[in-house]
Amino acid sequence: MRTRRSILALLLAAALLAAAPALAGPDEKSGEQVHKAFNDLYPVAFRVKVGAALDKGKAWLLSSQRPDGSWSFFTHRRAFPMGSNALALLTLLKCGVPRDDPAVVRAFRHLRTLPLRRVYSVSVLLLALDAKYAPARDPFAVESFDRYGNRQRKDPCHKEITPEDLAWMKEGVAYLLEHRRADGYWRYPQDGFDLSNTQFALLGLHAATRCGIKVSQHVWLDALRFCLGHQDKTGEPVMYKANEVRGRYRFEWTERAIARGFKYHFDSPQASASMTTAGLASLVVCQNRLWRARAFKGQLRADARRGIRDAMAWLQQHFTVTSNPGGQRRWHWYYLYGLERAGVLGRFRFLGTHDWYKEGADFLLARQEPEGWWTTNVHWEGSCFALLFLKRATARMDAPVITPSGSSDGAMPQTSVPKAPRAPKRVRPSNPTALALAVARAIRSLADRDPDVVFEAAGTLGWLGHLRAVKPLVRVLKLHADADARTAAAAALGRLGASDAVPALIEALVDDDTLTRFAAEGALIRITRHTPAERLAHTKSRNDRVRLQRVWREYWKVSEAAVRTHRKQPKET
Asked: Is pLDDT of 490 > 90?
């Protein structure tokens, strides 16, 4: 009997292993330890509350439609009549209203009377046309993936779309391609660049490809390169707690990152959460469309992965659902919709320790009016954003997102580590003695052979804020072989405001690594409070960077005394 039970147990174990996703072996260079765990389902009571909120919101939206199929209460209905009405229609379709429902038929009939005008409006129209043929998804459904992380469920739009809708969609695609700028971005089109329009154009074009319309590979390549160039060039060195959901499982690992966000346009003072979610969505869409392209190899593939990872790290560092970090308050609800896109496209359930969907849904559920709408600072558009968030309405990408850096083909390294590594909690020392000890420990860590240890130590020294760390950090910036360690050292020197580091930072303007160069420039601007007319972003070759380096040297000769006086850091004799 025991033998029989043993055989049955072995057969059962073999069956379970066969059913689980196959995993590749660990990459020797990556060093990540990946933990695989079941992705726990949300409680039934919570799911019931979400379903009730969606039903109330859907009923409100249906009852507020005018007889001609339009909605009249949107803030931007005059400037964006197609965009506002297409947003309401998209929300209805995503909330489960069937395409042959009279309200949907009237809405599409009304949209056909409107001209194709404005990038945002045409993009949302394409999203609505795609949603017309994509069955509304259960926000808590578990999708299936193959061993490499590719989504197995295929979308039906390209098989079911009617010739009339296909022709309409092709007109929309032609409009977007016609109004694409030479550098790969979009604008309103009469105004200057902004990242929001570029994001919606890419989402609209991606929706068109799901319906069988081909978009040139060059469109995705140009947009990817542009978005990578628009992302902040430097930021805070952090340990990013990564996770990727695949069906019933969640893979977790930690890796070092530079928290780099996105701005609305070039002249915006700082990155914001709403625009960082937009930049992240743009990068993921472009990566997905280029996943198997021959042109998407080597450095470009690595840059895309690093850009996505660093944007996720920025969101992790600034996470909240009660405001729009770094941005204007009136875009708070737009940020929540962007957070939904980022979470679904990025396949992550957690940002650091935060369950982004649970916290966002709790925030929205507590604020829904009895009639089904929300009182927001963008009025009725915000209610649509809230419903789209709760529905987790964004269409999934087919390809994996970032995976551990040692396995860019998408297969997860196998590990026997029982728990995911956790980033150490930072507690600033409360007295001078403890601070001095912490600084000494971090300085010793700069000599460690492991680049990850050096990376963390440099970030810690920048956070601790003690000038005793300047010389050791300068040594790392000048001599360390690891590019991320040099980048972290440059960023830390900027946070310290170290005048003594200026010559070394000027030398780093011609570093072989792009992020190190930009981190050095950011540190120089932070220390000197001087922004030259010519920036690294304007340079195209090493000769250009050498010329910029010369400009900084001339500036330092003239201004060193003034900077040191302002910083109260006299030159050592």
From this structure: yes
CB-based burial label for 460 (10 Å; 0-12, 13-18, 19+): buried
* Domain identity same for 455 and 380: no
Give me the pLDDT at residue 364, please.
96
Confidence of residue 411 (pLDDT cuts 50, 70, 90): low
Quick one: angle between helices 102-112 and 119-132, nearest 10? Answer: 150
Measured distance CA(156)–CA(383) in Å, rounded: 28
- Residue span of the structural domain in which 155 resides: 42-391
Q: How far is CA 454 from CA 165, 423, 473, 479, in A?
A: 56, 14, 10, 12
Q: In the predicted model, is pLDDT for residue 2 greater than 50?
A: no
**Residue 163 shares a structural domain with residue 221:** yes
Q: Would you say 127 and 391 are in contact if contact means Cβ atoms under 8 Å apart?
A: no
Residues 387, 445: one domain? no
Q: How far apart are CA 500 and CA 469, in angstroms?
A: 11
Query: Do strands 35-38 and 350-351 pair parallel, antiparallel, or not at all (unpaired)?
Result: unpaired
Alpha-helical runs (H) found in 429-513: 432-445, 451-464, 470-479, 483-496, 502-507
Other beta carbons within 10 Å of 249: 16
Q: Which candidate, 114, 112, 122, places its Cα nearest to that of 83?
A: 122
Domain end among 360, 391, 422: 391
Asked if residue 436 and residue 337 are part of one domain, the reply reads no
Q: Please name the residues in contact with 432: beta carbons below 8 A apart, sequence gap of 6 or more.
A: none
Is there a single domain that holds both residue 381 and residue 442?
no
Work out how many domains the chain is built from and give that number.
2
**Which residues, other chains included, contact 312 with Cβ-Cβ below 8 Å and sequence gap of 6+?**
240, 242, 257, 280, 342, 346, 348, 351, 402
Residue 22 pLDDT > 50: no
Q: Give, in order, the Cα–Cα distances in Å from 30 to each of 255, 404, 408, 516.
A: 9, 8, 11, 20
Rounded Cα gap, residues 12 and 14, in angstroms: 5
The pLDDT tens digits of the residues spanning 184-225 come to 889 875 556 678 999 999 999 999 999 999 999 999 999 999
pLDDT band at 562 (very low <50, low <70, confident <90, very high): very high
